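Hi R.,

Here's the chain you asked about this morning:
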Amino acid sequence: MSPFPLGILLMIGTCAVWALAFVAPLALPHATAMEVTLGRTVAYGLISLMLFDLRRALRLPPAVLWRAFVYAMTGNVLYYFLLVLGMQWAGAAMGVLIIGMAPVTVTIAGRLQHGMGALKPLAVPLVLFCGGVVLANTGGTDFTAASSELAPLGMAAIFAALVMWTWYAIVNARFLQETRLVTPGEWSSVVGLVSLAAALIALPIAWSTGLARLPTQIGGGELAMLALWSVLLGGGSTWLGTVLFNMASKLLDLTILGQMIIFEAVFGMIYVFAAVGEAPSVQEVAGIGVALFAVWLSIRRLYGGRPPPQGAS
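And here is the predicted structure, written out as tokens:
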């Protein structure tokens, strides 16, 4: 299979496992944002520890290890903490709506390196994309149902997560294009190991400050669910998702890579609807259709009949 369709399939798979993050706050309504974040991070780190030689990681240049730490914070730990916190305060639907704009922010930020003129071919597709995301997320959704008096702060937290992840997606893609020190799978594990170290430092602080409960303070059933979702998020959404994303980052132009993140919102909506036992409305289906059409239109406008180039722009 040629790089472009393989990259597309990898990004669809990436988004399918990433979208599990939108279900966790619904499945764990009594868990704090810190508990969900640390559970996911510890599981991610332990899986990375089993799959990657720690001694090889320690032999990497200090600058690479520092980069792994920064990426772990922005693309994993802090990002997910802010997302979960925002969804708990402003509702899961608001989280899907705001994070659903990641394809637009990544695309714009990636294209701006070539100057404002580089955005002209994408003006119409990006407007259509935004309209489709808003249409899909306002169809039959009560944005106040799951929100609280802290909803404005929740929205701010989700927006901060969006900005943080946009930066991470761009610099991570560029790093993987340029480096020969690690493969995409190895880089996922290196970031996982650094994340584990950060989580182990944060755990006692979280317990002592009340941001997270001690395991002995959590009921057996809730603790089992928290452990289950920690493995699902750490192993699937984080480790596997990061591997697939890293592989796609080496195969796709950054503009296309960014827009393919729409599938995270698609899968997120599917999972949330399945979790609450509802079916999407005609408006929601139409909105997703418009967003997907916008992605296709942007590819056509950028490349026409020419094969899309390999690698991040």
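One quick note: The longest helix spans residues 220-251.

Cheers,
M.
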